[in-house]
Amino acid sequence: MTDARGPLRPLSDPICPNSGRKLPFGRRGAHHLRVPDPALVSHVVATTSLTPGEAARVIEDVVAFHAQTVEDYVRTRHAHLKTYGAKNPEIFARIAEELAERVVAAPQLSERQLRRIIYG
């Protein structure tokens, strides 16, 4: 099928119409296959004002965030910081610092390695 802009893509291959980049929707990771641990959901409910459904969604979001590959995190974070006017030397230093502080620390990457992740 086509329209005035060209061939229509199937929903399973979502593309951003503005940039042409593939969108991350519909990606299936391990976090989508499991229900959060009921004991963890209960703990979050008991220590916050969240409902069980809200607590489960928060846990799923946190797990999804930490399930990102280093490359995905670097690309996403670089784009975010660039959007707000940061320059590459500052961005690379900040990303390297953030990677070292993640729950499961990523390997230490040089500025050159970070550049290669972003620009290929």
In short, what is this structure?
The protein has 120 residues and is mainly alpha-helical. Helices cover 52% and strands 3% of the residues.
What do these coordinates show?
- With 120 residues, the protein is mainly α.
- It is built from five helices and two strands.
- A two-stranded antiparallel ribbon has the order 1-2.
- A hairpin with a 2-residue loop joins β1 and β2.
- The longest helix is centred in the middle third of the chain and has 15 residues.
- The protein is elongated, with a radius of gyration of 18 Å.
Describe the protein's topology.
Layout: E1 2-3, E2 6-7, H1 38-47, H2 52-66, H3 70-83, H4 88-101, H5 111-119
Antiparallel strand pairs: 1-2
Helix pairs in contact: 1-2, 3-4
Short key terms for the protein model shown above:
single chain; 120 residues; mainly alpha; 5 helices; 3% strand; elongated; disordered N terminus
Oligomeric nature of the chains: single chain
Helical/strand content category: mainly alpha
Q: What general form does the structure show?
A: elongated
Which strand order does the major sheet show? 1-2
The total beta strand count reads 2
User: How are helices and strands ordered from N to C?
Assistant: EEHHHHH
CA-based gyration radius:
18 Å
Task: Give the uncertain stretches in residue-range form.
Answer: 1-13, 25-33
**Hey, roughly how much beta strand do the residues contain?**
under 5%
Distance between the termini: 33 Å
Q: Determine the fraction of residues in helical runs and give it as a percent range.
A: 40-55%
Total count of helical runs of at least 4 residues: 5
Mean pLDDT: 79
* Main β-sheet description: 2 strands, antiparallel
